[in-house]
Amino acid sequence: MTETTPALPDYLHLTEQHRELLDQVLDKWSLHVLAALCEEEPLRFNELRRAIPVVTQKSLTAALRRLERNGMVERCVTSTRPVAVEYRITPLGQSLQDLIDALLRWTTSTLPAVERARAHFDHA
Amino acid sequence: MTETTPALPDYLHLTEQHRELLDQVLDKWSLHVLAALCEEEPLRFNELRRAIPVVTQKSLTAALRRLERNGMVERCVTSTRPVAVEYRITPLGQSLQDLIDALLRWTTSTLPAVERARAHFDHA
DNA sequence: CCGGATCCTCATGGATACTG
DNA sequence: CAGTATCCATGAGGATCCGG
């Protein structure tokens, strides 16, 4: 009954499903969208566009669709003329937001050490 | 002195530096490398290759170089014939490992809800 | 105002072959 | 064994035009 390589509980096993979700939700523009919606909510499409530096509609639309599909943001259409579309964070998206906070805290605290490592590496 | 949009402490501001570091360190193969080195250490190049499903040398080499440059893994060359190269996690890499654990815990716990959201979205 | 549809390019990743 | 070099396919992302 002695296992040779237990080491890791199951939830730490990196499966394709885990990677796929992280990829869909932690990509470049998604991070910006979440950050923007965290500061102010709700935001309309063009407000988001202005809030995020140099994003194209295509990329922004794609990011919003991905986030919506994965249940991270909510898309509310008001059928006026012209239509108004508002984006909000869902509870699921809020839990992701907390994770991103942790990531940013980590980058902030380790960036100095990382830059030293880079300088040392690039020197050689 | 009342700020209109404080909301976020500075370390939660998503700068290009933060995004760059996360991109270099949380990419597909880096996650696998860290996971592999976490289970067993040290590992040689071809051992890593065998441990990681279907990675090519090119991708593995690139991932290892990036991780080494950012101070996450250590590369030790033993000048025998033929040469032996061993890879280890650094303390900095260990802190990253802890973060990845948190990410995987999050994906594990939210995956059911995410899949419901996907099903609902795809239904329409 | 909020996108969808197209076309294009350009970086990334895979496959293969070769080397110290 | 541990890579480097090369060629090539693929896909993300930008630019532009159009439609509800």
TrEMBL record, chains A, B:
Ranges where the HTH hxlR-type domain occurs: 15-115
GO MF annotations, alphabetized: DNA binding
Pfam families per the UniProt record, alphabetical: HxlR
Keyword terms, alphabetized: DNA-binding, Transcription, Transcription regulation
Gene3D superfamilies: Winged helix-like DNA-binding domain superfamily/Winged helix DNA-binding domain (1.10.10.10)
Keyword Transcription regulation listed: yes
Record keyword DNA damage present: no
Entries under InterPro entries matching the protein: HTH_HxlR, WH-like_DNA-bd_sf, WH_DNA-bd_sf
Protein name: Transcriptional regulator
Source organism: Allosaccharopolyspora coralli
